[in-house]
C-alpha cells in the first residue's frame, strides 16, 4: 500500500504548518496542555527560545517582530492572562505574531489536564478600547494544519497579533494521518517599504495596513510605539490624527475580515434546525449531525472557524433556521452571548458543559427536544 | 558639542531633571564612538525618561512600563548585524516592576546597554517610592522617608553575569562612562544616580545627590568588567520537516472490524500504560483502521493512576470523548480506583481485570487474568491489550505482537 500513515497529534501539525507558512521564531514558557507545541517547536523552528515567563515571551516576540521576524508562542489561560498588556503593545506597534491558546479548565490554575472552551471572552476582549483582534478556532486535524497557516498569513498581511484558539483534547489526542494528503502550504509573502521617500511607519497603505520596515534597516528611521501616536510614530495625547490611527487598527481587522472568514457550513434540504459549534465540540456536533441524519432527521451544521470578528454571514446563515443550537464547552455559552447578547432570541438555545466534553448525545437531544435547556 | 542623535529642539523634561543630562551625554558618547545614526536602536521604558524617544533621530521603540529590557532582548536576538547597537533607557520604577527582565538579559548576556535613570522615585506618577529609594529619602507619599535600604541593582546584575556594570553620579559629563559601556560586548549596564527636581528635591529640600548616594551605601564604581561576548547571532535553521524520521506506520494487516470500538485502559504510572495504548492504536492503524488515543494522568506523571482511551474504527473518528468504553482493561489498584466511573457506566461490554484485584461491581462481564504476573508489572497494560486482541479479535493479534516483539517474549493464551 502506498499510503503513508503517521500516528501523531495536532500539535505536530500546527508547528509544521506555522513554519511552512513562514513563521520563523518560537518563544515559549511551558504550560500544560501546550507543552507538545513547545516541544515540537524546539525541534522545528529556525529560532527557538525559552522565555522566563509569559510577559517576557510576548516582549521577546515583539522584539523579534520589530526586526522582521514572524514569532509564534503557545500557552494556556494563565499564560495568556499575563500576556494581555503586551499583546496590546504588539497590536499598537502593528507587529505580526501568532499566539496559540490551548484552553484548559479554569478558573485560575483550574485543572491543567482537562480541556475547556472557556477563554473566548477574554480573548475577544483582549484589546482595550473594544478593538477587534482576529481569533481563529481549530476544530479538527485539517484545521490544525490549514488554519495555523492562515493565522500566520493574517498576522503578516494585517500586521497584527492573531489568536489561534484550540484546547487540550485537540492538541494532545493522537490520531492516524497521511501527511501526503495535507494541502500544500504557501509561505506568506511579506511586503516591506522599499521607497527612498520619507518613511512614515504608521501611514495606512493598502487595506489600511502600513508597509513594514524593521529596526535593522539603515535606510530610514523606524519608530515603534505603544503610546497613542501619529503616522510618524510620535506620541500624541489625543489629536485627531493619532486617534484616527488607533481607530484604524480596529478597522484594518474588521474591514479585511472577508480575507480571513473561514467556516464550514453543511446544509441539508428541509432542515429546520442548525447546530452551531466550534473547536473541540465541533467534532461532537459533526457526529451528532451524522447520527441525526441517519435517523432520518434533517439538520444543518455551521462550524465557525474565524470566531472573531464575527462575520455577518453567520447571522445570515442562522437567520434561515427557526431553531439554532449552539454547543460549546463552557458554563454559560460564551459564543452564544457574543452572537446574541445575554437574551438570545426565541429559537436559539445552547448546549454547554463545564469540566467535561459535550457528547453527541447531548447535542442530539437538544436538537430533538429544543427549548428545554436554559439559555 | 553639536547634536547628532538628538534633535535640536529642547528636551521634554522639567528644568534641572537628571534625564536631560543622560540624553545629552548619550548623544555625546555615541558621537565619540562614531556609531552611524541608523545603527542605533533606542528602546525606552514608560516613565518621564521614556518620552525622550520623540527627541532622538535613530530608531526608537517605546513599549510598556518595565518591559523595555525584554523588548530590547528580542530585538537584540533578532538582529543579524553585529554593528547594530541596542540601548535601553529605563527608570528605577521600570526596574522595580521588571527586574526579572534585567536579570534574564544579563544572565544570558544579550548584546545591549541598559541605562538606568535612577532618580530614586517614580517621576511620572507623582513621586512614589521604588525599590531603589534610599532609607530616609522622602517622597510625596512617604513624608517620613523610606523605611528600608535601597536595593543595589549593580550588585544584582553583576551577580547575574553581565559583561559590564557600573554606577555613576548623573552630574556633569558622563559621556566617557556611557561610551565605555556602549562599547562593551554582551550585556552592559550603567546606573545613573540623578535627581527629580519636581518631587525628589521638593520632598528633600537642600539634598545633595552625592551625599544621598553615599549614605545609601551605593558605591560609585565599576562592578563588573568581564568582556564576555554576547550570544551568537542568527544563523540558518538546522531542522527539517516534522514529518520525516521514523514515524511512518506501514499498513501490513487487515481488520474485519465493522463498527467503532472504545477501549479504556487504567493502571499505574510507570507501568507502560501510555506506550501500550499507543502501540495498540498504531497496530490498529497498521491493520487498516482509524485510531485515536489520549492519556489521562495526574500532573505528577510518575505516581498515581495512568489511564488511556483508545478508539478504533473502520470509519473516520470525530468525537474523541469516551463516554462509556466497550472494553475496559484494569491492571492495578490505581487503575481500579480511576475506572470507577466507567465501571458504573458500562451496561454491557467486557472488563478485563488483573487477577490480584477484587472483582468489581459492574453490569459488564468480567474476565480476570494475571496481567501483572505474565511479563512483570511494567508490561501489564501491554499484556492486557494483547489479551484483549486474543479474546475479542478486533484486528490481527500479530499486528500488535510484531510491534512489541521482544518486550514480552512469549505468546499469550
Ligand atoms: C503596568 C503599569 N503599571 C503602572 C504604570 C504607571 N506608571 C507609569 S510611569 C510609572 C513609574 C515611572 O517611574 P520611573 O520608571 O522611575 O521613571 P521616571 O518617571 O522617574 O522617569 C508608573 C508606575 C504603567 N504605565 N504600567
Ligand atoms: S517629574 Fe521629575 S523625573 Fe519627571 S521630568 Fe520632572 S524632574 Fe524629571
Verbal overview:
Chain A has two domains: 1-260, Thiamin diphosphate (ThDP)-binding fold, Pyr/PP domains (Rossmann fold, 3-Layer(aba) Sandwich), CATH 3.40.50; 262-374, Rossmann fold (3-Layer(aba) Sandwich). Chain A contains twelve helices and 16 strands. Chain A has 375 residues and is an alpha/beta fold. In chain A, helix 1 (10-21) crosses helix 2 (35-42), helix 1 runs parallel beside helix 6 (141-158) and helix 3 (54-66) packs parallel to helix 4. Chain A has helices spanning 10-21, 35-42, 54-66, 77-93, 120-124, 141-158, 168-172, 240-255, 280-294, 312-319, 334-340, 360-368; strands spanning 5-9, 25-28, 47-50, 71-75, 97-105, 111-115, 135-137, 161-167, 174-177, 223-225, 263-266, 273-277, 299-304, 306-308, 323-328, 348-352. The longest helix of chain A is centred in the middle third of the chain and has 18 residues, at 141-158. In chain A, helix 2 (35-42) links the parallel strand 2 and strand 3 (47-50). In chain A, strands 2, 3, 4, 5, 6, 7, 8 and 14 form an eight-stranded mixed sheet that branches. With 413 residues, chain B is an alpha/beta fold. Chain B folds into two domains: 18-235, 3-Layer(aba) Sandwich (Rossmann fold); 261-403, Pyruvate-ferredoxin oxidoreductase, PFOR, domain III (Pyruvate-ferredoxin Oxidoreductase, domain 3), CATH 3.40.920. Helices cover 30% and strands 19% of the residues of chain B. Chain B has 13 helices and 14 strands. Chain B has helices at residues 18-33, 68-78, 92-107, 153-160, 175-182, 197-203, 209-215, 273-286, 333-338, 340-345, 371-375, 380-392, 397-401, and strands at 40-44, 59-62, 85-91, 112-118, 164-169, 187-193, 222-225, 248-249, 261-268, 290-296, 305-313, 327-330, 350-354, 365-369. A seven-stranded mixed sheet of chain B has the order 2-1-3-4-6-5-7, with helices on both faces. In chain B, helix 1 packs across helix 5 (175-182), helix 3 runs parallel beside helix 4 (153-160) and helix 8 packs parallel to helix 12. Chain B is elongated and about 95 Å long. The N and C termini of chain B lie far apart (94 Å). Classes of the chains: A alpha/beta (375), B alpha/beta (413). Strand 1 of chain A pairs antiparallel with strand 8 (248-249) of chain B, so a sheet runs across the interface. The complex binds thiamine diphosphate (TPP) and iron/sulfur cluster. Residues 46-49, 65, 91-94, 117, 119, 122-125, 130 of chain B line the site of thiamine diphosphate.
